Amino acid sequence: MFIKYKLDKILLMKLETHVAHFTSPLYLESGRILEPYKIAYETYGEINDDASNVILICHALSGSAHAAGKYENETKAGWWDDLIGDGKAIDTTKYFVVSTNVLGSCFGSTSPMDNDYPKQRPFRLKFPVLTIKDMIKAQKQLLSQLGIHHLYAIVGGSMGGMQALQFAVDYPNFADKIISLAATYATQPWTMGFNKVAMEAIRRDPRFDNGNYEKGAFEEEGLDGLAIGRIAGHISYLSPDSMNDKFGRNYVSNDGLFELFGRYEVERYMEYNTNNFSRIFDPLSYLYIVKAINTYNLSRGYDSLYDAISRIKADITLISFKGDYLFFPKEMEHIHQMLQRNQQKSAHYEIDSNYGHDAFLVQIEKFDTIIKDKLEKN
């Protein structure tokens, strides 16, 4: 069942925020069932009469449904605001854009710290392991409840790019266009290694208490384990060149060079950003989403990767970044080559960037025209 959304007051672009509640069971890839559940999402622009202008936006690990625009009294816009909006590459005067928060996330959708119905206590570690397949299945249920049974396009970066590709394979007739940035066909050991640092740092923090912490326990001081794990994440999101350009060997001016814990600017940056992150992101959500990223494999459930890719009917656009040391461009090129051999519609753009994996978030000007042209092309 779909329960009516709530609407927040917004500024400028037509932006609505919603929470949809479902009482029907969601059958997960693991064999477990999630019931009931909720999905937080935002919409931008207006849907046309035949619902042919709908674009779905899928977010990365730490993202949320708030992809664009600003709320009243908000200083920071949504995480892809440079890409989505009136007159931008994903033009909300033309398209009706839906941005969802994935299951397992702590930003409004059902997550490990929600109550395990009918028990009046959080799931915590009893929450089911989720996969990318599960995430998109829930999103498809949401869209169906909204009366949207076909999409013009699906766009996402990193884990969002994984979701976009999974949609293309699992639901071949669901979207006309798929645009996947900084993603892969299966998470590789190199990336799993970075993720392992974060998972172990969280698990071994005494305050994590095997997931038995109280809601809001880390809002003031954060969780050290998550902050440490996030440092590993930040390193993987950047690149050696971008770190050299951003920090060099600059030393914090009021720290002594011969003090044991005196810091270079790169160290101060890591401390500041990761400590803030550990105050706003739930550690159990982090563990569950990282697990979903690690288990991502387009070929699972099919005879082979070739078999999975062969199912795709959408026009595929793959965008990778030369400086990405988390999901290497060759991984996206591999998908493109398989599509080309099958004479399926595909284009691969390797963006000249030394920023690193996070280029898909911060260097919009390097690829926004590609997305704009792909969306406008019939």
From TrEMBL:
Domain AB hydrolase-1 span(s) in chain numbering: 53-361
Keywords: Acyltransferase, Amino-acid biosynthesis, Cytoplasm, Methionine biosynthesis, Transferase
Record's subcellular location: Cytoplasm
A Pfam family that the UniProt record links to this protein: Abhydrolase_1
Protein residues bound to substrate: R230, D358
Any one GO BP annotation for this protein: methionine biosynthetic process
Pathways per UniProt: Amino-acid biosynthesis; L-methionine biosynthesis via de novo pathway; O-acetyl-L-homoserine from L-homoserine: step 1/1
GO molecular function list: homoserine O-acetyltransferase activity
Superkingdom in the source lineage: Bacteria
Active-site residues, Swiss-Prot/TrEMBL: S158, D324, H357
Primary localization: cytoplasm
Reaction(s) this enzyme catalyzes, per UniProt: L-homoserine + acetyl-CoA = O-acetyl-L-homoserine + CoA
Broadest EC class assigned to this enzyme: transferase
EC number: 2.3.1.31
Gene Ontology cellular-component terms listed: cytoplasm
Subunit record text: Homodimer.
HAMAP family assigned to the protein according to its UniProt record, in alphabetical order: MetX_acyltransf
Described purpose of this protein according to its UniProt entry: Transfers an acetyl group from acetyl-CoA to L-homoserine, forming acetyl-L-homoserine.
UniProt record similarity statement: Belongs to the AB hydrolase superfamily. MetX family.
Official protein name in the record: Homoserine O-acetyltransferase
Origin organism lineage: Bacteria, Pseudomonadati, Campylobacterota, Epsilonproteobacteria, Campylobacterales
